[in-house]
Amino acid sequence: MISSRVERVEESATMKSSKRAKDLISRGVDVINFTLGEPDFDTPANITQKTIDAMKSGETHYSPAVGLPALREAVAQKLRTENKIDTKAGNIMITPGAKQGIFEAMMTLIDEGDEVLLPDPSWVSYDACIRMAGGKTVWIPTDPKNKYQPLDDLSEFITPKTKMIVVNTPCNPTGSVLDKSHLLEIADLAIDHDFFVLSDEIYEKIIYDKKHVSIASLDNMADRTITINGFSKAYAMTGWRLGYLNAPASVFPSLEKIQSHSISNVTTFVQYGGLEALTGPQDTVMNMQKEFKKRRSVLVDGLVKLGLQCDMPDGAFYAYPDVSEFGTGAEITDRLLEEAQVAVSPGIAFGESGKNNIRISYAASVERIEEALIRMEKVFS
Ligand SMILES: Cc1ncc(COP(=O)(O)O)c(C=O)c1O
């Protein structure tokens, strides 16, 4: 009855952990929930206000499928100045979240049997989107001893069917930020073997001591890269469903077909909020980043004191400790919830390599992180 396309995909394991935690919370249990992939801050007030103004002034009709011209121009301007990507408004599509942009890119480029290179571990939805599009995921190893950078020689994973590689920097779940040298290697391979790059840069603003580099800014890469980004993480706008992509002219009209036949357009007044986010004051972004940095130290230092192996992540808001001294990631996830009422996600959700890891989202206050570390002693002692 259900299409094989959908049968190929399983429910997200991170969603499962999150549901379990929320279920307990709704029954009155004091669970500290570290499963969430969303900032715990409110959307900045100037963004909300501009959206209300737009709604009140009648911006409640369809917009062009690819987005409001002013927002596409603002995104293009941002990508040119901040990300050094040579682009223009005509290459920008406004999407209902980065996730839909990823789905549309996969549906546009991947044919039945095409192979997509995906770093192990990776965020859960890439593999699901690849499968729904009929593609095959080829997991490529990363090096946990070198902050999850890809291994030096990726060429052995490339075949005539390789259509795309996924790059996610800063990375969910590891927090790894790819070095420019690795991005250059990936770019060389993509050019030599003629495949596309899907570059998900949703965590670019949550980066600590390193500098974000967009692979589309490297020589000859703009023509073969779809850059994905959005407002969810940088501006605490997860519920708004607002993102964007930058695509080369060779694929843009095909992406537009999917968008116009599926969603028509992103909610018009929400796009005005995005315009304000990009063109208004940026101090809230900096403040959130500072707060995340503080939490990162409290959490990672605490985990190391508990005897876990855990690198200081360079970006995003996740710690990804190795818990193998105490059990598998899945066992420890269960024990933390049952014995300490601390909810985390098992590393296996992100790929085979994660079986000994757990992912802890530090989108929670310092007080809650400190409380969780005390509770965790029950399991890690
Ligand atoms: C790596 C990555 N990409 C994309 C998304 C989805 O972002 P959006 O809310 O813009 O759809 C997430 C959300 O958790 C993510 O972790």
TrEMBL record:
Residues 30-373 form the Aminotransferase class I/classII large domain. Transmembrane segments: none annotated. GO terms for biological process: amino acid metabolic process. Its EC number is 2.6.1.-. GO terms for molecular function: pyridoxal phosphate binding; transaminase activity. The keyword Transferase applies. Its cofactor is pyridoxal 5'-phosphate. Homodimer. This is Aminotransferase. It comes from Methanolapillus ohkumae.
